[in-house]
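dumping this here before i forget
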Amino acid sequence: MAQTIGAILATANRMIQATTQSAGSSHTAIGITDLMTSLAVIFILLFAVQLTKTSSAPQSELQENKENVQAALSDHIQRLGLSLDADPRDPLALMIVVPENLLTFDLGKSTLSPTADQFLEDALPFYVEALCGPLRDKIDSLAIEGHTDDQGSDAFNLKLSQERSLAVMVKGLEVIQATEPASYQCFQEITSAAGRGKQDLIYDSIATVSREKSRRVIFKIRLRSAEQRQLARIIHKSS
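structure:
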């Protein structure tokens, strides 16, 4: 934007200089110079307004998409005592943070507990039906992130969190295949598993780690960017 406005100013300046040289130093030249300057300023303001309108459109659409996802999942999420929040690190992402009491593993292992199995059997079909159904054109991906507390080495925690997130994804594939077979391929395409270990610990205070809150699984729903949505529209029209 700054480069474009700079180019417009340079062009306007050349026009002003040419007009001044041809008209001499008379009052007419001063009047023409003032007129050209005013026209250049008006043009730049109009151009800036147009740019603002153009850049705000994708943001409005993104906000609308976020609200659509929140509305589709809100009742079920609230029933489970969870929340759907914006990701402070990614403006395109929404997060469902599942605490350890709902998604539990055996100590130091990646084996899902009966409580975790029940949670996934209850939650995943509903989420996937929405994400792979009416919301599909708005969704880019679903990432399952595993997190540990600060006990143990970095290598151990990273490996453990990766194995746990993968266990959740594998269980998810089994559940979706059994309950929502029409969404199975979509779930497989958009879902990934990642371990974060103890990289994103949660603190009760400046120096005190909340180990209970740090042990968690995050379902991260990433929305399509403006470019991805535009490309999808083009592909849809051409098909």
